[in-house]
Amino acid sequence: MGLPADLPTSPERSLQASKMTSEQQYRQIVEGAAIGELVPTVQLAVAGADRASFLQGLLTNDIQSLAEGSGCYAAWLTPQGRMLTDMHVLESDGMILLDVPAAQAEATAARLEQFLFSEDVKIGSLAGALATVWVHGPGAAAALERSLDGASGLGDWPQYRHAHVAFAGESLVLVRIDQLAVPGYCAFLSGARHDELVAALEAAGARRVDADAIAAARVEAAYPVFGADMNADTIPLEAGIEPRAISTTKGCYVGQEVIIRVLHRGHGRVARRLVTLKLAAPGAEPRSKILAGEREVGFVTSAAVSPASGAVALAYVHRDLAVEGASVAVQTPAGPVTGVVVLEPLRQALRPA
């Protein structure tokens, strides 16, 4: 499925977002319906009778429990428990769809092939064949229902529920995935229909927003993304994704021994934790160093300025500093900026995931 990053960005699209102030774009996300992706992704199709059992032994979540029309979030780890990638997993139409960060897609597909022996499994990349359109906000469901044929009751969908609906006489797959502490949906559709769907959504009241607006809402929601807040050095427990990414009841998977050892023998204690920082001023950048006194205790992974919360960041800090209200200093080009650790998302979800 689609690679939105490969689709041309028209001058009209850029102009629309530029006409809206940063506050208007932010409000579109948290109060209306906003069109925009967190990161570009590529879709991999895993088909065959053994597809679920094959992925069950590789990914961190319980893939074999997925029923048609359901899905989950998962990670793929090294034997040392560090992340190779994360992904959205959808059981649909006799295959499993893996929605993978674009930068990791080619390596992920190749690695999957390497693990194949005699299983009845076929793996294929859908890069270039399909596109994705992400819509976020309290008004996202209504905008989609006005734009798509056969879409109804979307606001009541649980996380990862997906179904076929129609647009311009063609079938597309629509899935619910909340990422910004507001309802979120992704449409997987033919690349040729991408711009048409965006135009229909705009006619229904949705608006395109830029990366800065998405970043502000994402940091407030404490939603980490692979490539920015997680990478090949990350253990999932450090990033705090285990409640939605890791099954503690399934059978063996790659890296499980490390995860179980930390959870049960180490009581979940890891050397560092991803936390939210409320900053006294803007200026923080990815990889900005964090100090406690003279001691370096962490680094920033994502930074943004929110109309609601001011300057904010996601950052890894030493576990001793991962406590509510802990004060740190973030090094910026303009000098040190005080940051205060916040353990809960600055903006809570409208409904539980």
Low-confidence stretches: 1-15
Supply the helix-strand structural class.
alpha+beta
Would you identify the CATH architecture of the largest domain? 2-Layer Sandwich
Number of domains: 2
Instruction: Give the count of helical stretches.
Output: 10
The order of strands across the largest sheet is 8-9-10-7-1-11
Got a strand count?
Answer: 17
Any idea what the radius of gyration is?
Answer: 20 Å
* Strand fraction: 25-35%
Can you give the helix content as a percent range?
Answer: 10-25%
CATH first level of the largest domain: which class? Answer: Alpha Beta
What is the average of the pLDDT values? 93
Principal-axis shape: globular
- CATH-defined fold name of the largest domain: Gyrase A, domain 2
Order of helices and strands: HHEEHEEEHEEHEEEHEHHHHEEEEEE
Main beta-sheet annotation: 6 strands, mixed
Span of the ends, CA to CA: 25 Å
Name given to the CATH homologous superfamily of the largest domain: Probable tRNA modification gtpase trme, domain 1
